[in-house]
Every structure is written in C-alpha cells, then in structure tokens.
C-alpha cells in the first residue's frame, strides 16, 4: 500500500558547509534536484564518533500532528526508543497506520483535539498513512545519532556539534530509489574550510 509513495528523483546535489575554526561546529546542508530546485524532507545523518556520550536529543518535539488532512511535519526525526504524539488538529477523525518494518501498527479512529501516541524502538524509516484519507502521508525517521537533520523548503538542514574530520553521511529521501531509499557517502570537514559533497540520486 505504501510502496506507491516511492517515485523517481533523477539527480540530486548535496552541499555541506562547515562553519567553525577548530572544535565542534555547525554544518549547513543543502539538497537540490536535477533541475537545481531545493529538495524538502531529505534526512541527513552522521553517526557519533567512537566513545561519544552525547545524548540523542533534538530541539523539536516528538510530535506529528494532523492538520488540514496533512501530517505536520511531513518528515519527523526522533531518537530511538521515543514515543511520538499524534495530536488531531482537524475537524475530522483520523486513523494512523504503518506497514514499515521498524514499526507495524494501527491507531484506531480518533477525533479533534484528541491525541494518540506510539513508541518507536527500532531505527529506520516509518511511512505513515491514514485509513480514511488516502492522500495523507508522513515519515518518521528513527535514529541513534544526535547528528541528524531534515531539510526545509529551501533544501537546507543544520547539524550542530560536528568536529573536523572524515564522517560517514547517510542521506534518506522518500523519492530516492535504492535500498531503504538512502545512500551513504563520506565527507571530510576541515577546520575553517567549507566541506562539499556531491551525490547522484536516481
């Protein structure tokens, strides 16, 4: 049922720019398609270095609302083991389901100003749908790293706290064809120098 969500994205360009002098820094990510248009909802992940004790937390809430018969946000990143709230802000009822490997579940119909929650103990991508409204789709990316971000309308994502060095970067997007709709590359961030990574997406 959810496989129809995966379409073709011909070619993508990922630019990652590090901004710092020496220690942990802020990295700004931009993702573009073949036409040079920004790609929204791409998730960029970098694993923590060996021995890292940094907690996997993010500044946003672990919540995905239903508003105007749309999942908001369309793509949500949460730490492994988190419970996600699904508040219904619509005037109609919704029923949420997923057939994805990391989380197969169904939340029965519930109405306006009601909230349901679901725990996500396994990393990976969870594609969401609504049994009542076929056009609704959303994605939860469950991660085990604090270095993750989703791109916005301008194709930009920001990852804080990265140290200079070579990093393995995983990029996921629902329209990226390949195993798990993701690709893996390496990225070198040098002190005071912007880092740039170009990838091809089918």
Describe this entry's structure for a reader:
This is Methylamine utilization protein. InterPro entries: Carb-bd-like_fold, Cupredoxin. Keywords: Signal. It comes from Novosphingobium sediminis. GO terms for molecular function: carbohydrate binding. This protein is mainly beta and 202 residues long. The chain has two domains: 2-48 and 148-189, Immunoglobulin-like; 65-143, Immunoglobulin-like. Helix content is 0%, strand content 49%. The protein has no helices and 16 strands. A five-stranded mixed beta sheet has the order 6-12-11-8-9, with no helix packed on it. Strands 13-3-15-16 form a four-stranded antiparallel beta sheet, with no helix packed on it. The chain has a three-stranded antiparallel beta sheet with strand order 1-2-14, with no helix packed on it. The model is unreliable at 1-11 and 17-22 (pLDDT under 50).
């Amino acid at each position: 049922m959810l496989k129809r969500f995966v379409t073709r994205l011909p070619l993508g360009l990922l630019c990652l720019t590090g901004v710092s002098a020496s220690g942990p820094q802020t990295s700004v990510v931009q993702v573009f398609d073949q036409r040079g248009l920004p790609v929204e909802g791409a998730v960029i992940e970098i694993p923590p270095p060996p021995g890292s004790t940094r907690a996997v937390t993010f500044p946003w809430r672990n919540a995905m609302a239903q508003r105007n018969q749309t999942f908001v946000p369309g793509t949500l990143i949460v730490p492994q083991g988190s419970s996600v709230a699904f508040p219904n802000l619509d005037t109609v009822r919704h029923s949420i389901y997923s057939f994805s490997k990391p989380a197969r579940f169904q939340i029965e119909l519930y109405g306006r100003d009601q909230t349901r929650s679901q725990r996500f103990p396994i990393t990976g991508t969870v594609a969401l749908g609504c049994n009542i409204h076929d056009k609704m789709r959303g994605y939860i990316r469950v991660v085990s790293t604090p270095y993750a971000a989703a791109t916005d309308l301008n194709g930009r994502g920001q990852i804080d706290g990265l140290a200079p060095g070579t990093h393995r970067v995983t990029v996921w997007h629902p329209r990226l064809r390949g195993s798990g709709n993701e690709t893996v590359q390496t990225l070198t961030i040098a002190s005071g120098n912007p880092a740039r990574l170009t990838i091809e997406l089918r």
